[in-house]
Amino acid sequence: MNVTTVLSFVLAMIFVVGGLLLMGYAFETRGWEILMFSAGAIAEFIGVAIPALLASRRDRTARA
Q: Would you say 39 and 22 are in contact if contact means Cβ atoms under 8 Å apart?
């Protein structure tokens, strides 16, 4: 297990948990609901995409 794997996992978890928090608090903030919910959804997407993108990059470098 290398440093990149651990850092990508930690960063992805921060994005996922932060996105859940943003989406959860979105309905408590009057006037900012759609913005906070959208930011939470984007953070969730980034959190899920980080490991997938790094895994595909790692596969390309392993083959070369």
A: yes
Any long-range contacts for 33-41 (C-beta under 8 Å, 24+ apart)? none
28 residue type, one letter: E
Say how far apart CA 9 and CA 5 lie, in whole Å. 6
Q: What is the pLDDT of residues 20-46, one digit of tens each?
A: 999 999 999 999 999 999 999 999 999
As a whole number of angstroms, the distance between CA 44 and CA 19 comes to 5
Report the C-alpha gap between 25 and 52 in whole angstroms. 27
